Amino acid sequence: MRKFSLLILFLAVSVSVAIAQDNGGVKGKVRDPKGDGIGGATIIARQSGKDVKSTNSDSKGNFELAGLKPGLYNLVFDKTGYSSGLMYNVEIKNNKIRDLGDRLVLTVDQGTQVIIKGSVFDQNGRSIGGAKIGIEKVLNNGSTKKIGSGNASYSGEFTFKFPEGATKFRITASAKGVSASREVEVDNAAIYRLAITLNLDK
Prior knowledge:
- It is built from one helix and 15 strands.
- The protein is mainly beta and 202 residues long.
- The protein has two domains: 2-105, Immunoglobulin-like (Sandwich), CATH 2.60.40; 110-198, Immunoglobulin-like (Sandwich), CATH 2.60.40.
- The strands form four sheets. Strands 1, 4, 7 and 8 form a four-stranded mixed beta sheet that branches.
- The protein is elongated, with a radius of gyration of 27 Å.
- The termini are far apart.
């Protein structure tokens, strides 16, 4: 009886191993538009509207999702702060891990960003194109930390984007030796607008 039980157990293990070997999967890399890997992204294999299996990308954006039965799957790529990605009708074959490469790009979801949009004008209300723009974070002790810089467009406009979070920013515009600053407090994801006037007659 004991030998018979062991035989059944051996057969059951053998069958499960054989089934596992008949399964396939996918692998690849999830990255942002700059080419950097996105760690912690969720990859879901979906079939007939149901989530079959999922995994997460590692710190470099690489992932492997194995144990899928042969067939066609829709793959969903999701990460907080990014727009979701979707690949339709990805074919999975027996005993093969399909390499999707690094073409899986997730764009930043602007709904989870603080976006600061501004304009630079002179004392007469004319746009100042090419003005130098610097942005600093105002710390709790009143000191500041430089976190970005750039130049206004030909129409005097500029934009900075940051992750969501409560922060106070100081934006400084400079042109022809004249500078002026504005501060803006942000508390959640939204578009914050401001205007900076430079008195170029000084």
